[in-house]
Amino acid sequence: MxxxxxxxxxxxxxxxxxxxxxxxxxxxxxxxLRLAGKRELAQLNPFDLxxxxxxxxxxxxxxxxxxxxxxxxxxxxxxxxxxxxxxxxFLYRHRKLDTIVExxxxxxxxxGKLRVHxxxxxxxxxxxxxxxxxxxxxxxxxEVEQCxxxxxxxxxxxxxxxDPEEKRHQELMxxxxxxxxxxxxxxxxxxxxxx
Length: 195
Prior knowledge:
The chain is α+β, with helices and mostly antiparallel strands. 63% of the residues lie in helices and 9% in strands. The protein contains nine helices and four strands. The protein has helices spanning 4-9, 15-36, 38-42, 46-64, 70-93, 95-102, 116-121, 126-135, 164-186; strands spanning 106-110, 113-114, 144-149, 155-159. Strands 2-1-3-4 form a four-stranded antiparallel beta sheet. Helix 2 runs antiparallel to helix 4 (46-64) and helix 2 packs across helix 5.
């Protein structure tokens, strides 16, 4: 029993190395994901998801090194959380640098029209965009007024609003349906006579 605790909590690497490794990997991943583009973060297809999952597994050994101790894991996790907190606060105070690191939003659909050039730049196919729109409740891209690929990889869709004439027509049809239902109820369920 006395051998378990040193094995679990004893460090195989110096503490400074345990802190430095996650910081190096953190900045490498931030830069790499920024260069890879917002598409990787959007996870538009299974390949993107596989890349992100295997990426985390690939850098695991770079973070922990030869140390599998609980203490080493806790030090590495603490270093990752600390560097992220410091980096996010730094970027919050320096908006221009934040835009460079995170990127800017990319409009993929504007006023109902596809921006094919932006889709190509982000390596997003129309089929992938249609699938993302369906996940957010749109039947087709024709129902979308605007779609923006945010810096974090989120696709934000805004639906088209019907023009005033179409709104009036829809309201009139709803009223007619309601009147027909009320008329049917007052006649005891008998169909209304046709003229």
